[in-house]
Every structure is written in C-alpha cells, then in structure tokens.
Amino acid sequence: MPHRRIRGKLHYTSDKPDRKGVERGREYFTITVHGDGGRTLRAYTEIDDAPNVMRDVTLSLRPDWKPNDAFVRLSVGDRFMGSSWFRFTEHEAVCEGYTVAEGRISQRYPTERWIDGFGTHPIQADAWMTSIVGKGRSSAPGVYDDVLMCSLDHRGASGPFLMLHPRGVKLKFIGEERITVKAGTFDALHYRFAESTDDGSGETRNEPGKHPPYDLWCTADGDRVCLLAYVTGYMMTRYELVEYECIDAQP
C-alpha cells in the first residue's frame, strides 16, 4: 500500500447556554495521502438541527494543496437537494450537476490561475483550507479572493454548485499550540476565519459577510487534520476530534 490513510470522527456540540454540550451532529472522514503528495478527503457529515443536513463529499487536492476535483451530494430535511461534480484547472472551474431548485447545471467559470481553495463544508475540509495562509506572522487577517464555494449558506444547506464568495475568505494564522482533545494530545496550528465585523456592528446571521468568528486548530504534522473548532455569534457551536487513526504507507 504506497499511500497513507487517516481516519477520524468529529463530534459536533452546541455551545448555547440552554444546550451546552448537547450533540448536534457528527462527521466521519477518511484521508488518503498519495505517494506524489496529493490527497483525497472522503467525508460524511450530519447536522441534526432542523432542518437536518446530510452531506457526502469527496475532495481531492494536488501536491501543492490546490483543489483538483470534488463531488458533493446534499440532503436537507431528509430530502435530496442535489449532487454535483467539480473539476479545476489553471484556466477554469467546471461544475456538472443537478439540484431540485435549479435543475440540470453545467457551469464553466474562467479563472486567471489555479484557485487557492474550494469550500465544500465538512469541518475537515475547512482545516485543509487553512493551507492558503500557512504560518503567516501578520496579526491582520488576509483576504483570499481565489476561493470558490459549493454553497454560501453557513450550514452548506444550498446548492451544490459553483459560487463565488462576494467578500473573499478572511483567514489568519494565530499561532502554534499544543492542545488535548478526546482523540489525544497534538501539536497544533491555530487559525481564525472572520468576516462578521466589516460594518462595525458585530452582528452575525446566515448570509455572506455575516459569518461569526470561527477558530480552528489542525495538526502541525503537515496533514492538517482538524482537532478542534468553535464558532461564536449566532451559531455557538463546537467541533472536536474524538477518533483518530493513521495507517502508514507500506513498501
């Protein structure tokens, strides 16, 4: 087996005062790290809060961590919403799919270069998204415009098809830490996604540009496995790695 495999489970819980610690979802994922440095994520996510969300995602990255291709299937309220296939090159992003709302979809989005990231909404995919900033030292968040999404809904409960974030993704590196979660103790990289205070109000709601601050810790070993994340504002939710297994490549 010339590739490595990583298996994990993330536990979703509420941080709201009346529901603190209550399970609200889960995410099961497997990562394959190929011999050339490319990697593929297979994630199944469940959000129990009504209307419940189920998502199946396959996302492949090139050795330079830029997206190569993806597949997303979405159900909301236990009803099929759509499924789409995505492909990326240095000149364009392509989507072929079907959604209940839009019908048959065929998109070709021209790009000046290979996009930095593609948001598919599993928390583990968000951890991979941090590769666009690395270990920058600036205290101010960078704004990354070369990012496409399959949904602009904060729960990923729309689409799936190609969407451009209207304000770009704001992301900054906070620092290196050592943290303990249910799956163990790890050296971690701490990042923060933030976009909610652009107008000075600090108001958060489910629309582009109003996502609450979102802190995420991933492993510092080069695989960027999500260890812990939490979102404040109107969402008040927490994600923690509770199962982790790494199977090394065999000659």
Structure description:
- The chain has one domain.
- It is built from 1 helix and 17 strands.
- The chain has one helix at 123-129, and strands spanning 4-14, 23-33, 39-47, 53-61, 67-76, 79-88, 92-99, 103-110, 117-119, 142-144, 147-149, 163-164, 169-181, 184-193, 214-219, 226-231, 237-247.
- A 14-stranded antiparallel β-sheet has the order 8-7-6-5-4-3-2-1-17-16-15-14-13-10, with helices on one face.
- A hairpin with a 5-residue loop joins strand 16 and strand 17.
- It is globular and about 45 Å long.
Q: Share of helix among residues?
A: under 10%
Number of helical stretches of at least 4 residues:
1
Largest sheet: 14 strands, antiparallel
Rounded to the nearest angstrom, the radius of gyration is 17 Å
Number of strands: 17
User: What general outline do the C-alpha atoms trace?
Assistant: globular
Strand arrangement in the largest pleated sheet: 8-7-6-5-4-3-2-1-17-16-15-14-13-10
Low confidence ranges = none
